[in-house]
Amino acid sequence: MSVVDPSKAAFGTALAPEMAVAQYRDGRWHPSSIVPVAPFEIHPAAHVFHYGSSCFEGFKAFRQPDGRVCAFRIDRHVERLRQSARILAIPEPDAEQVSSMILEVIRRGSSVTPERPGALYLRPVLFGTMANIGAASVPSAEATLIVLASPVWDYFAGGQRPLRILVEERNARCAAHLGMVKTGANYAAALGFTLAAKREHGVDQVLFCPEGSVQETGASNFLLIREGHILTRGLDSTFLHGVTRDSLLQIARDTGYRVEERLFDVGEMLDWVRTGEAALAGTAAVLSSVGTLIRDGQEHRVGDGEIGPVTRRLREALSAVQYGETPDGRGWRRAP
Ligand SMILES: *Cc1c(COP(=O)(O)O)cnc(C)c1O
User: Distance of CA 55 to CAs 124, 161, 180, Å?
Assistant: First the structure.
């Protein structure tokens, strides 16, 4: 992995040269410091290696027309990291400390932040470092929080194309009580199903619909969209509460859309997509059109199979707020 690749590296492969680090020991979080991005020492018996005590966040800071680089909805991401830590019994850092670490990393990463359509992707990661392989049913009494930054360029550099998605009704993405937790374990749990789906059906992603109830994909929320109307699963503990999802729903509501947040099943989804649109929502790709759904080996075209015009408009509306091209009436942008 290189540090700041000036060529337009693939998402996540380039890093800003500095990161923030803080440690929890002796019952408290110690002041953070800024250090060069480099390998560091960690005990082989660290809790995270054996008992999976880790969680992370992912979000972006965007270069504004005036040149500043502003974080998008940093407070929500800090709170979600703290929630993940609580649910996994990892020492929980103060919101204030996490925010100031992130803002300092943005300040220092500002010079390597690409212009639109690029951004500075922020990746806080928190993990248990207590050295004790007998601590299977004990929380880690020590932890480290790191904030990495990664300059990202155009996610759709190769051109945007509608996604192929497999509808998975038998297997779950993750353990039921970890749905709201942003943890590597959930990605590991979904990876085997996703790899099999790619191999067997040539799809991009898997849409998990346990017992027929539509949930989300391995790393994105799922939205059904048509002119003036959005349908998506209501918040519950089974899936990750995406900030992109929330932002799109607020923008849609404010522009007069009817936004339905409720349970719906695969049958209703297939009915919707005969004339409507479907898309995946998440920080990395913002909002990506789904062109085809595959269920039980049968392909269902979403609308005309191309990128949906309503999806495109919603995505543009959110990007405009993120890049500071429209007023920020909701306090979503934060200068470091
Ligand atoms: C991170 C993530 C999302 C998207 O969340 P955003 O806050 O919109 O980036 C959706 N689903 C899963 C499983 C995730 O890990």
Answer: 9, 31, 11
- Say yes or no: CB of residue 190 within 6 Å of ligand 1: no
What is the CB neighbour count within 10 angstroms for residue 95?
Answer: 14
**244 Cβ closer than 6 Å to some ligand 1 atom:** yes
Report which protein residue has its CA nearest ligand 1's atom 2: 219
Q: Whose CA is nearest to atom 10 of ligand 1?
A: 220
Question: Sorting pLDDT into bands at 50, 70 and 90, what band is 10?
Answer: confident
Between the CA of 220 and the centroid of ligand 1 the distance, in Å, is 5
To the question of pTM greater than 0.90 for the whole model, the response is yes
Q: Give the CA angle between residues 59, 152, 8 to the nearest 5°.
A: 170
Is residue 136 classed exposed, middle or buried when 0-12, 13-18 and 19+ CB atoms within 10 A define those classes?
exposed
Quote the ligand 1 centre to 132 CA distance (angstroms): 32
User: Would you call 304 helix, strand, or coil by DSSP?
Assistant: coil
Strands, E, within the chain: which ranges? Answer: 2-3, 14-15, 18-25, 28-29, 33-36, 54-56, 59-63, 69-72, 119-128, 143-152, 163-168, 205-208, 216-217, 221-226, 229-232, 258-261, 277-282, 286-295, 298-301, 333-334
